[in-house]
């Protein structure tokens, strides 16, 4: 009797959610994976559904079809991977309903390409352990993720696989400096662009087509005299212990690689407690020296100056280290609205250091702390039913130009105005059942895309008024290939769209396929 009472007591305090409620029935997803150029089935491809921390996988059969069961209801991102192919991405979210099967999904995978060749020195001898990287040509969208690169073998050979279609600069570098016998002068091998150039302006980009390899490249490194840069940093914060600073060097010549472009990694060195610094291995050229503060938070640029390196060491450079900057601001709407401004996201973006994201308060005020002295594009995620109308600092609109803090000692308050009458572009893509529509507008930092559904329809809202160009592409990956040259190639498939505030415009587009893009013919 006592045991029965205990069981009844425990049952009476069981969570209510576990009584009388059944968990939602899992659903399923089925479809097929096909070759992006030929339409043939791709077997043994791994298909992955991802929703936050949930991942479900399946594999295609010999006919390219797949079925993933026991999928919990929700909205998933779907991708496919296989050796020899680039990652394929389904262009729309996959919505799985309880107990239902979502079928008819098709993922297109393009074959990978390979770039291969060798690196030699000034005598034509192979260079082992040289690092070779691919740099997308300027104007290409930065969608390719991590930069491709690798070291040469003992024969000076390199082979870079998993290359997406596009135009690339191939650049090789050899780390370290050397001193010839009987000499005190250092020499080294600065980055060289294929075929034999110091910078992008005189280099020849390599065009890579889907599934087509670019091989037989030879990159000759040139022996060059190297110099040192010496100086001191003033104004360092005493509380940092002065061990938290470093001087970094980046090329300043137009077309040379900057941070994040993959070729010249730059020099630099830690600042000593007395403020002195020295950096070695610098070939002649124009450079920017940056003071990076590492103490008290993430690394941030707190000072900079320009230097010229010639045929002698550069001495007595003085750099001033200021405190990290703080950006304050206010968000408002252009009309009375009940929009929750606390859901707006404001961030300073870019490839450098000292980026940050603001936590916006319900009244629209925000603060971004520990900001570096760099040029930042501004990213604003506007709530549904609004668009970013203007971003001003000290009376200047910085929406398109970005926030230039390279020489700032302080930052005036930022004002962000959200328009409450956004425009929209929707329409139909002829003979299409998948893909994406890309809208190119005045703001190059904005990636405006919409998925094409199974009926060939698309819709893209939240737009600022202005002039755009719309094009329909077979895969989402093709957006990243739309550099200036490819845009000219498919200019006949672009449709000009002009929208006024609150206007809804309808257009009809013709799909551009990967095969057409790689054909070399203008469309």
The class by helix and strand makeup works out as: mainly beta
Report low-confidence residues grouped into runs of 5 or more: 1-18, 139-145, 254-265
Q: What percent of residues adopt helix (DSSP H or I)?
A: under 10%
- How many strand segments? 41
Characterise the protein shown here.
The protein has 523 residues and is mainly β. Helices cover 4% and strands 48% of the residues. The strands form 10 sheets. Strands 35, 36, 37, 38, 39, 40 and 41 form a 7-stranded mixed beta sheet that branches. Strands 10, 11, 13, 14, 15 and 17 form a 6-stranded antiparallel beta sheet that branches. Strands 2, 3, 5, 6 and 7 form a 5-stranded antiparallel beta sheet that branches. Mean pLDDT is 86; it is low at 1-18, 139-145 and 254-265.
Question: Could you give a quick summary of the protein structure above?
Answer:
The chain is mainly beta and 523 residues long. The strands form ten sheets. Strands 35, 36, 37, 38, 39, 40 and 41 form a seven-stranded mixed β-sheet that branches.
What is the strand and helix layout of this fold?
Layout: H1 2-12, E1 27-35, E2 46-51, E3 54-59, E4 65-71, E5 74-81, E6 88-89, E7 94-96, E8 101-109, E9 113-120, E10 131-136, E11 149-151, E12 157-163, E13 166-179, E14 186-193, E15 206-208, E16 214-220, E17 224-225, E18 227-234, E19 245-251, E20 268-270, E21 276-282, E22 285-293, E23 300-309, E24 314-320, E25 325-333, E26 345-348, E27 356-358, E28 365-371, E29 375-376, E30 378-381, E31 387-393, E32 396-397, E33 403-404, E34 414-419, E35 423-430, E36 436-440, E37 448-451, E38 457-463, E39 466-473, H2 484-489, E40 495-499, E41 504-512, H3 514-518
Parallel strand pairs: 1-8, 9-16, 18-24, 25-34, 35-41, 39-41
Antiparallel strand pairs: 1-4, 2-3, 2-5, 5-6, 5-7, 9-12, 10-11, 10-13, 13-14, 13-15, 14-17, 18-21, 19-20, 19-22, 22-23, 25-28, 26-27, 26-30, 29-33, 31-32, 31-34, 35-38, 36-37, 36-39, 39-40
């Amino acid at each position: 009797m006592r045991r029965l009472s205990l069981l009844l007591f425990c049952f009476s305090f069981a969570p209510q959610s576990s009584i009388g409620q059944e968990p939602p029935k899992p659903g399923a997803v089925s479809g097929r994976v096909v070759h992006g150029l030929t339409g043939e089935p791709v077997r043994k491809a791994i298909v992955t559904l991802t929703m936050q921390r949930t991942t479900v996988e399946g594999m295609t059969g010999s006919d390219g079809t797949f079925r993933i069961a026991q999928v919990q209801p929700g909205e998933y991102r779907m991708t496919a991977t296989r050796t020899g192919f680039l990652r394929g991405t389904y262009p729309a979210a996959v919505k799985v309903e309880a107990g239902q099967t979502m079928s008819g999904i098709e993922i297109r995978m393009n074959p990978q390409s390979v770039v291969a060749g060798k690196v030699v020195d000034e005598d034509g001898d192979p260079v082992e352990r040289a690092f070779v990287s691919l740099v997308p040509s300027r104007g290409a969208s930065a969608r390719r993720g991590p930069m491709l690169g690798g070291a040469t073998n003992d024969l000076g050979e390199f082979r870079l696989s998993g290359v997406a279609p596009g135009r690339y600069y191939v650049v090789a570098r050899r780390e370290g400096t050397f001193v010839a016998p009987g000499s005190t002068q250092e020499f080294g091998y600065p980055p060289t662009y294929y075929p034999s150039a110091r910078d992008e302006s005189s280099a020849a980009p390599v065009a890579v087509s889907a599934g087509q390899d670019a091989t037989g490249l030879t990159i000759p490194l040139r022996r060059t005299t190297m110099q040192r840069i010496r100086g001191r940093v003033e104004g360092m914060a005493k509380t940092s212990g002065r061990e938290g600073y470093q001087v970094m060097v980046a090329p300043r010549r137009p077309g040379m690689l900057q941070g994040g472009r993959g070729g010249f990694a730059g020099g630099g060195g830690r600042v000593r407690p007395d403020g002195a610094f020295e950096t070695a291995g610098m070939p002649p050229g124009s450079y920017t020296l940056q003071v990076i503060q590492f103490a008290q938070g993430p690394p941030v640029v707190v000072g900079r100056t320009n230097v010229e390196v010639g045929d002698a060491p550069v001495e007595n450079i003085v750099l001033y280290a200021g405190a990290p900057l703080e950006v304050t601001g206010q968000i408002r709407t252009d009309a009375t609205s009940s929009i929750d401004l606390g859901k707006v996201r404001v961030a300073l973006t870019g490839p450098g250091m000292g980026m940050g994201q603001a936590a916006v308060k319900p009244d629209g005020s925000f603060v971004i702390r520990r900001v570096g002295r760099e040029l930042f594009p501004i990213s604003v995620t506007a709530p549904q039913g609004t668009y970013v109308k203007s971003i001003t600092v000290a009376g200047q609109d910085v929406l398109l130009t970005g926030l230039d803090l390279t020489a700032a000692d302080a930052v005036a308050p930022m004002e962000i105005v959200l328009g409450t009458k956004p425009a929209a572009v929707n329409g139909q893509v002829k003979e299409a059942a998948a893909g994406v529509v890309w809208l190119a507008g005045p703001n190059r930092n904005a990636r405006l895309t919409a998925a094409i559904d199974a009926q060939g329809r698309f819709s893209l809202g939240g737009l600022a008024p202005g002039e755009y160009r719309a094009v329909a592409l077979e895969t989402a990956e093709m957006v990243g290939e739309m550099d200036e040259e490819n845009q000219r190639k498919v200019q006949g498939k672009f449709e000009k769209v002009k929208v006024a505030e609150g206007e809804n415009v309808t257009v009809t587009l013709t799909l551009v396929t990967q095969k057409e893009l790689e054909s070399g013919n203008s469309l």
